[in-house]
Amino acid sequence: MAEQVFDDWRELSQDFKQLEAVNKIYQEKLTEVTKYQKECQKHIQHQKYRIGIINNTIKRSKDDRYEDLKEEILKREAQLHEIQQTLPKENGRYLKVILGNVNVSILNKEDKLKYKSEYEKFKLIVSALAFVFSIVNLLFISRRLERLYLFILVWYYSTLTIRESILRVNGSKIKGWWMVHHYISAITAAILLIWPESESWNQFRTQFMIFNAYISVVQYLQFRYQQGVLYRLKALGVRDNMDITIEGFHYWMWRGLSFLFPFLFVVYFFQLYLAYSLYNLSYLKDATWHVSTLSKLFFTLSVGNITTMMMIIPDKFKQNVRLKYRVLSQKLFSDSESKNKKNKKQ
Questions:
Q1: With 0-12 CB in 10 A as exposed, 13-18 as middle and 19+ as buried, what is 130?
Q2: Segment 261-272, tens digit of pLDDT
Q3: Residue 306 neighbours by CB distance under 10 Å
Q4: DSSP code of 61?
């Protein structure tokens, strides 16, 4: 029995030597990867600098021969964007304050899509929970339930700011306003949480719960749209036999957006109504500073949302060609990766 134990230990020691050898190779490869990452970043900066000079030259010229070159530049910018997504990025200021210098870059494309999908599922789960709480608070008057619900909203919007900052580090094109929107929403929820029970709150609570029930439904529609976009992008960029064309993707994307726009605008004008309602409530005798402050915050959210949406609609049309080249570059990039994997297997 004792001899068997010693034999097992000697065999395990041999395995450990193999582990040390593999780990040494792994550390060497990590050093090489860091070196190549820096070289890639240097080349990307050089490409962008030279493209900037060429673009300035084209803008100053009226020569029609530059039309084909403009198209080539769009393709190159899309290709550079795809290469950048494979390289680590520095955390933004907000993430540095929250997490320090922890590297949150996700270098694998499939992992990025997975994280984005989990982010959308997180919003869906909390939206469903918020919908239930809103209905329950409409049916029953309980200060404890109200506070619990408002606490969940504070936690939700605070968490969103961190998750969206990580998404931005990993190449997600989240508009700056939507980030600010969630900061303001977190502050708004916090003030609602500490708003003392009073006549002004009792008059406001019903319309606020109706608003939250409606926004939960809209967020479900947004989830369906975002999941469709992620699925179709994955189908275009990953699958060998594509079941969707680029033109089909554009058609579906615009049809989905045009369906969502009316629901979103109802949300934004509902926020404006809440701001007006709070403004009127601020003249009540028992109104505290919470009422007037919340009125200003809801007004800011409404105006910011409406203005940003009005700017996004024409901007989306301008980005149509750029998106086409980006999707094409994703497909080419994925094809080259799959070919390399097949060659390695052979």
A1: buried
A2: 888 899 999 999
A3: 16
A4: -
